[in-house]
Design a protein that fits this description.
It comes from Cognaticolwellia beringensis. With about 350 residues, this protein is of the alpha/beta class. The protein contains 16 helices and 13 strands. It has two domains: about 160 residues, Glycogen Phosphorylase B (Rossmann fold, 3-Layer(aba) Sandwich), CATH 3.40.50; about 180 residues, 3-Layer(aba) Sandwich (Rossmann fold). It is globular and about 60 Å long. About 5% of the residues have low confidence.
Length: about 350
């Protein structure tokens, strides 16, 4: 039995590795389809080699489809919407394992794709998806990406290895690329938090796409501060940094749901740099991009609207991490599902069971 993983983007990989491990424990062969990506091919290849993955390079969706039709694997796992599956479905089952659990509308919209099954996270997501797509099959498995942290199998790093001070508490700043808080934070942002270590883990697009050049410039500036470790594209997974951090600062990124599911405090920066085409009379475009699930950020994290509130709330929640614990745990079960280290095992069992 073979399962193919369609890796359209590098940042899908940490979500799929726990599932790959669970499948291989059942003697199932796993193959990763990697798409050629400018500036990222070396990073991709190094990452898959370090994790001993069986992989094949393709140029585009057309190449990938050709491989699927020739190989006829029992399963293909996709991380995003894809069309033109009629021929593939003659030989293979398909499933969607979404690469994130964020508040963007695309989380739900991707299920318009003709993929056969979808693994989802928690009762809230399951009920919403089933209501929108009553004829589709959704399986609540929980969020597999967090399994290595829960099971204590994730690669560990130290603050010393990042040239940070082990006597200080550590903040993880994990902004998304759009809409992002990066441009709204001051040039001396690290200096305002000099009593803490700051690990900055931006979205890959902030580092590689020319339209986010101003974000990259600010990230480079922040990286020069002694209390900062700024991740680059080779830091593929956020999980090792989540383990080190006592608190997360984020904006419209799904990593905020991931971090708080570990019962750690987070700060939600509800202020963003918006393009002119998303402001004023065009604000409907932002509303269309962001789903109503964004409102749940305020239940799992402390909401701030400016840098002064950010400083105050960071100090407060680092000193009293239990403040929002009840809401955090309740909402995490609601939005992320079971956080028991067995999510990838449930996915593997379903895949095997459907082929029995």
């Amino acid at each position: 039995m073979r399962v193919y993983f369609d890796i359209l983007h590098l940042y899908y990989l940490p979500q799929y590795l726990p599932v790959k491990n669970a499948l291989e424990a059942k003697n199932i062969e796993c193959i990763f389809i990697l798409y050629q990506q400018e500036h990222l091919n070396n990073t991709l290849e190094n990452y898959v080699k370090n994790h001993n993955l069986n992989y094949v390079w393709v140029n585009d969706r057309k190449d990938a489809k050709k491989i699927y039709l020739e190989a006829k694997p029992e399963w293909i796992i996709f991380g995003n919407a894809t069309d033109d599956l009629n021929e593939i479905h003659c030989f293979s089952k398909t499933a969607l394992l979404q690469h994130g659990i964020g508040p963007k509308a695309c989380y739900y919209d991707v299920s318009y794709s003709p993929i056969m099954y979808r693994f989802v996270e928690g009762k809230h997501r399951l009920e919403r998806l089933q209501k929108i797509f009553p004829k589709k099959i959704f399986i609540d498995t929980g969020y597999a990406k967090l399994d290595p942290i829960i099971n204590n199998t994730e690669t560990k790093i130290t603050l010393e290895s990042l040239a940070l001070d082990p006597t200080k508490k550590t903040i993880l700043y994990a902004p998304t690329f759009y809409p992002s808080s990066i441009e709204c934070l001051p040039q001396n942002f690290p200096d305002l938090f000099k009593e803490y270590n700051i690990i900055i883990k931006p979205h890959f697009f902030s580092l590689i796409k020319s339209k986010y050049k101003s974000q990259k410039e600010k990230l480079i500036n922040w990286s020069r501060y002694a209390n900062v470790y700024a991740c680059d594209v080779d830091d593929v997974s956020i999980l090792p940094f989540m383990q080190l951090a006592s608190l997360m600062i984020s904006d419209a990124s799904s990593t905020l749901f991931e971090f708080t599911a570990l019962n750690k405090p987070a700060i939600w920066c509800d202020f963003y740099k918006l393009r002119w085409s998303y402001r004023g009379i065009f604000k409907f475009r932002l509303n269309k991009r962001l789903d109503t699930d964004l409102s749940y950020f305020g239940k799992v994290a402390a909401r701030v609207t400016n840098i002064k509130e950010l400083i105050e709330n960071t100090k407060l929640h680092l000193n009293e991490p239990q403040l929002n614990e009840v809401n955090r745990l309740e909402m995490s079960e609601h939005l992320t599902g079971k956080v028991d280290g067995k999510c990838s095992e449930r996915i593997a069992e379903f895949i095997v069971g459907e082929c029995a």
